[in-house]
Write a structure and sequence with these properties.
The chain is mostly beta strands. The chain is about 0% helix and about 45% strand. Strands 2, 4, 5, 6, 9, 10 and 11 form a 7-stranded mixed β-sheet that branches. Strands 1-3-8-7 form a 4-stranded antiparallel β-sheet, with no helix packed on it.
């Protein structure tokens, strides 16, 4: 049984940083494209970033987070992380970790991911 469990969310002031982690069980993160999505109240779930599976190591980021967010993978711990810097109130959302083995063209699409975490709240507010 596959499980993705996010951790590290919380409340942070504008300009601050947070690091989200996604611990995987039942799958090997290096063999999957690992993505992060977020959903703000009243909005659609949107792509944040992804790291393609081993052998096709490419990073993908939404324009809104490029240069501020960084994805990394720890194969030994079977985890994926999302380092978020220079956070602003528009980054407030429920953040989801996801895993899939889709084609490159599906990397930014929710449909490209088969497994999802429960989500974790990130709130940016003073």
């Amino acid at each position: 049984q596959v499980q993705l469990v996010e951790s590290g969310g919380g409340l942070v002031q504008p300009g601050g940083s947070l690091k989200l982690s996604c611990a995987a069980s039942g799958l090997t993160v290096s063999q999957y494209t690992m993505g992060w999505f977020r959903q703000a109240p009243g909005k659609e779930r949107e792509f944040v970033g992804a790291l393609r599976r081993l052998g096709a190591n490419t990073y993908h980021y939404a324009d809104s987070v490029k240069g501020r967010f960084t994805i990394s993978r720890d194969n030994a711990r079977n985890t994926v992380s999302l380092q978020m810097n220079r956070l602003n109130p528009e980054d407030t959302a429920l953040y989801y970790c996801a895993a899939g083995q889709s084609l490159l063209s599906m990397t930014r699409s929710k449909s490209g991911y088969k497994y999802w975490g429960q989500g974790i709240q990130v709130t940016v507010s003073s």
